[in-house]
Amino acid sequence: MISVLYVDDEGDLCELGKLFLEQSGEMSVDTCTSAKEALASPAFSSYDAIISDYLMPEMDGIEFLQAVRADHGSIPFILFTGRGREEVVIAAINHGVDFYLQKGGDPSSQFAELAHKVRGAVERRRAEEALGESEQRQNDIINFLPDATFAIDRSGTVIAWNRAIEEMTGVSAPDMLGKGDYEYALPFYGTRQKILIDLIFEPDEVIATRYSHIIHEKDRLIAETSHPRPKGQLVILSGTASPLYNRQGEVVGAIESIRDITRLRQAEEDAHHARKDWEIIFRAIGHPAIIMDPESRIIDANDAALRATKMSLDDLTGKRCYEAFQTGSAAQSPATCLLEKVKRSKEPVTVEEDMEILGGIFHVSCTPVFTKGGQLRKVILIAMDITEQRKA
User: Fold this and answer.
1) Contact between residue 361 and residue 355 where contact means Cβ atoms under 8 Å apart
2) Is the distance from CB of 367 to CB of 276 less than 8 angstroms?
3) For residue 200, which of 222, 215, 224, 221 has the smallest C-alpha distance?
């Protein structure tokens, strides 16, 4: 049901209009003979549309329209008047009238056209409100994304600039929204230039001139870039850019999320160096040392272990510890491997063992390594030759 307020100083015409407009059952019409009286009504803002005459005492239709636009926004307003002067039409358009309809002719046809104008104006406003609400929801979602995010329209004008990107760049949304000409690149690079959001449909060879680690996931583009901060420190940014589509599937803009991954890449580099350092130390240990998985399979061995077993790393890898270091029936028994004791105790185990295959008596320590969840991940075994000590 569309609620309508019909304002005309001719009371009889108001009642006639009410009768015609309510015939279809689509509209509920209230009438009033004074624009000032209408504005004073507590129910005024609840109407879906306003129909107004032009020439009325105290306040004419244009003045009424101005007051409505000033205090009630975009409520649909149809000027229905017997005055067809050009200056009235221009004034109505300039002040935001939705439709202008001249009185005269067959009342049935005239009010049918008026009803059509009311329906059109109300439907348009409801569609605009729905679109506005949808856009607001989208903006709210973008605004609360944890990653720095912005969006542009087809012309390159910034249409979204969220809180996270305000914090990252120091540029507020009011200062960036509505800006074009690659303004969004300035906080990152200090110059106006194309960035990832502008390169979505470019070939990889073009993207690679500015970005690395390029990944395409359907129409989503992921890449990394680095540049120096003002104080000279290098910052590494990861960007994810995608086109924006309307309901017809047409590209209407693009959106990009940016994450500062400098610390992540530094941590990865530190971890890489730590692994390399560990590998150097492991290889250089003067005693045979091996690393086993939870199933007793050897996954690595140091140089001393290769010399002691007279085997290559390829030959030793994949063997179970008892197969590599025991002889006879013991080489077939998992129970002879210290790993079984470690599994039961979940603590380091140390034994003294006469290892025939290595030709001596060894002090063997077996140290478990667990995941954060407490699962056994691997075991490090080190065998120290104490044969000479025992002979003494």
Assistant:
1) yes
2) no
3) 221
Structural domains in the chain, CATH included, are 2-139 (3.40.50.2300), 146-265 (3.30.450.20), 285-391 (3.30.450.20)
- Over residues 258-298, the pLDDT tens digits come to 999 988 888 888 889 988 998 899 998 999 999 999 988 99
**Which residue's structure tokens are 């200090």?**
190
221-268 pLDDT per residue, tens: 999 998 876 666 788 999 999 999 887 888 999 999 999 998 888 888
Partners of 30 in beta bridges:
5
Reported as a single tens digit per residue, the pLDDT across 183-209 is 999 998 889 999 999 999 888 899 999
- At CB < 8 A and 24+ separation, what contacts does 18-26 make? 20/107, 20/108, 20/111, 20/112, 20/114, 20/115, 21/111, 21/114, 21/115, 21/118, 24/115, 26/1, 26/2, 26/115, 26/119
Q: Which two tokens stand for residue 243?
A: 């086109």
Alpha-carbon span 82 to 56, nearest angstrom: 11
**Cβ-count burial of 112 within 10 angstroms (0-12 exposed, 13-18 middle, 19+ buried)?**
middle
Question: In sequence order, which residues have a C-beta less than 8 Å from that of residue 54 and are 6 or more positions away?
Answer: 60, 61, 62, 79, 81, 82, 83, 88
Provide the whole-model pTM: 0.53
Distance CA 84, CA 65 (A): 17
